[in-house]
Amino acid sequence: MKKLIALVLTLSLFFSMAASATAIESDGLDIIVNDAVISLDAPVQVWNEVTYVSYWPVVQALYPDATAVWKNDRAVVTAPGLNMEIRPGLSYLIANGRYLYLKDGIKTSDYVILLPVRTLCAALGADVSWDPIGGNVVITAGTGPITPGDVAYQEDVVYWLSHIINAESGNQPLAGKIAVGNVVLNRVASSRFPDTVYEVIFQRGQFTPVSNGSINLTPNEQSIIAAKLCLDGANTVGNALYFINPRYSPNSWASRNRPYVATIGAHAFYA
Hints:
By secondary structure, the chain is of the alpha+beta class. It contains eleven helices and 17 strands. It has a five-stranded antiparallel β-sheet with strand order 1-4-5-12-11. It has a five-stranded antiparallel β-sheet with strand order 6-7-8-9-10.
């Protein structure tokens, strides 16, 4: 498989190597799957305190019948009950229609694809822990791969969350789209706001796209992806409950009364 993907991964590898100063290789760290140490295609790397491993040996150890092919600039992995797509350079992977966020993205090393071990194990339905004595990564098989998206995601929630994300941040970077979704979900979880995504979005006087009708525009693909990423735990603005565009609202109530969290793209977020 390395020969097959070598040419396609060249550009991605270049950027990975250029940023390698922020990665720490952990040659002495073993990956133990079901009580057996496995051989890896590349050294374990730590990026911003997140442990990355070559995904394929882990997949093979947990699913011996798995296959992987290179298709449309991504690795497509299949096994009983599992369909996973991994595209180097993206900040998420897709497993059984679920969108799992990777803050530092999918990495490559010598044409080998690396994934955060916890996210990989979530996709594969495996448990992961750290051996307190040897300091190694211990992976234990679960009952099967991650629950499919058509079961895990509520259709109406994805529908409205993707619509508000698109209407508010359709031209913003993915992190900004996720942030808008975070605000909606944070409000659902807060006692100060309604209890459902629909009610939060349509609460009177809260979101301009509701009053101007743009909430009804068909969301672009990335807005739908952002909604699913949010529902699977992606978060780029913590506990933010408000956002504004400072260009159009330079003296907003939120900017004057709420703690500042971050600015992503055109939006400033407040808790």
